[in-house]
Amino acid sequence: MFQIHYLNKISQQGTALWTEDFALTDDMETADGIVLRSANMHDMALPENLLAVARAGAGVNNIPLTTCADKGIVVFNTPGANARSVMELTLCGMLLGSRDIIGGVNWVQTIKDQPDVAKLVEKGKSRFAGHEICGKKLGIIGLGNIGGPLANRARKLGMEVYGCDPHISVEAAWNLDGHVQRVKTPEEIYALCDIITVHVPLLKETEKMINASALSKMKDGVIILNFARDLLVDDDAMADALASGKVARYVTDFPNPKTANMPGCIAIPHLGASTEESEDNCARMAVRQMMDYLENGNIVNSVNYPNCDMGVCQCEGRITILHHNIPGSLGRFTAAIASENVNIAGLMNKSRGEYAYTMLDLDHHPSTEVVEHLKEIEGVVRVRVIR
Q1: Axis crossing angle, helix 276-296 with helix 83-98, rounded to the nearest 10
Q2: Are the C-beta atoms of residues 357 and 330 closer than 8 Å to each other?
Q3: Residue-level pLDDT at 83
């Protein structure tokens, strides 16, 4: 029986999926799998028997991915499960940035006890006037699970949409509205668009991509939306651009000491995925991926090891090997098994950067000798006997 530990409260829509082969434990040291949302694992001592970590969400900056990979711990996330919720909040952000809705609502609270509040509203509402989004040029950097559907919704709202994504998948491209205009570089979006939104992962090459140089290329009075990752935007450069009027409004889902006190910034308390539907979807996906890996050895939506799926094992035995991506490893694995006179009925080997994963279906349940032989091969991190 597999032991599962929660580091955060997980939606019952997901937790209800565990079968009788799984049991919850309050003791992390005994856990085979950990499921979490936002808990920070960087300072935690990882149990030796821990096999997998499932993040009920997309971002994994709260998990030590390399440390987990080196210990043979597969880390999963749930891409796309919260995409609709984030996309809808981004639409809301466009409206908040285009019209001074928050300023107006806050002002009404200051006069709500006045007996002539209705007259005061009619007299003072002009200071909160804004702009329609229909007809405006929207630039979307990143056309994946959030940016693609956002482009389609924006088109239906009458916006002129420009998209930039050099890594767009074929499926995502097929699902785009035919009137979404493709541009090759973010710089084209900077020059063209009235509203710009970023939907890319936080990588070395994307950190602070919205910086002083990028802002200088944009239209005066541009509106910028960030519902992806905090560090995609240089806060100091943004503060200067807001103060000068270069940026009319900055809407972010990531308050910090700078943005929360930045004039012209609307800081939303990280509500992108905070809907019941999103939390339910993420929990269901996280639990299913964890169960499939622990029971069958299949990896789907890992962020530190390659995806590798051979379905439910139909043979007498299955061995999985987490290992470093060293040339010749597969040959050494098959030779070790052949030396024990065991036939390989099915095989899959995938690599991802420094790490790789091999699945082997065997005609017989593997012996202790075979398993020990595999563990001794150079670069092997963990060997599991699934059946």
Answers
A1: 150
A2: no
A3: 93
Contact 274, 83 (CB under 8 A): no
In a 13 Å sphere around the CA of 144, the CA atoms on its Cβ side amount to 15
| Arithmetic mean of pLDDT, 72-90 | 95
Q: Do the Cβ atoms of 266 and 251 come closer than 8 Å?
A: yes
Q: What is the DSSP letter of 128?
A: G
Secondary structure tally for the chain: helices H, strands E: 13, 16
Q: What is the Cα–Cα distance from 218 to 275, expressed in whole angstroms? A: 33
pLDDT in tens, 214-255: 999 999 999 999 999 999 999 999 999 999 999 999 999 999
Residue 113: count other Cβ atoms within 10 Å of its Cβ: 7
**Tokens linked to 160:** 């002129």
In the block, residue with structure tokens 């499960």: 81
Residues β-bridged to residue 226: 198, 252
Confidence of residue 189 (pLDDT cuts 50, 70, 90): very high
Nearest residue to 251 (alpha-carbon basis) of 227, 234, 272: 227
Contact by Cβ (8 Å): 13, 280: yes
End-to-end alpha carbon distance in the chain: 13
Are residues 52 and 271 in contact, defined by beta-carbon separation less than 8 angstroms? Answer: no
Token pair belonging to 139: 């630039």
Q: Distance of CA 218 to CAs 132, 152, 223, Å?
A: 20, 23, 10
Q: Which residue type, as a one-letter code, is found at position 117? A: V
Determine the distance from the C-alpha atom of residue 30 to the mean position of all C-alpha atoms in its chain, rounded to a whole number: 28
Sorted by sequence, the CB contacts under 8 Å of residue 190 that are 6+ apart come out as 139, 196, 214, 217, 218
For the chain, where are the alpha helices, taking DSSP H only?
12-15, 65-70, 83-98, 101-111, 117-124, 147-156, 170-174, 186-192, 212-216, 235-244, 276-296, 329-338, 368-375
C-alpha 273/C-alpha 266 separation (Å) is 18
Reported as a single tens digit per residue, the pLDDT across 24-63 is 999 999 999 999 998 999 999 999 999 999 999 988 989 9
**What are the tokens at 260?**
């929360």
Beta-ladder partners of 195: 138, 223
Helix (H, G, I), strand (E, B) or coil at 225: strand
Block residue for tokens 């032989």: 373
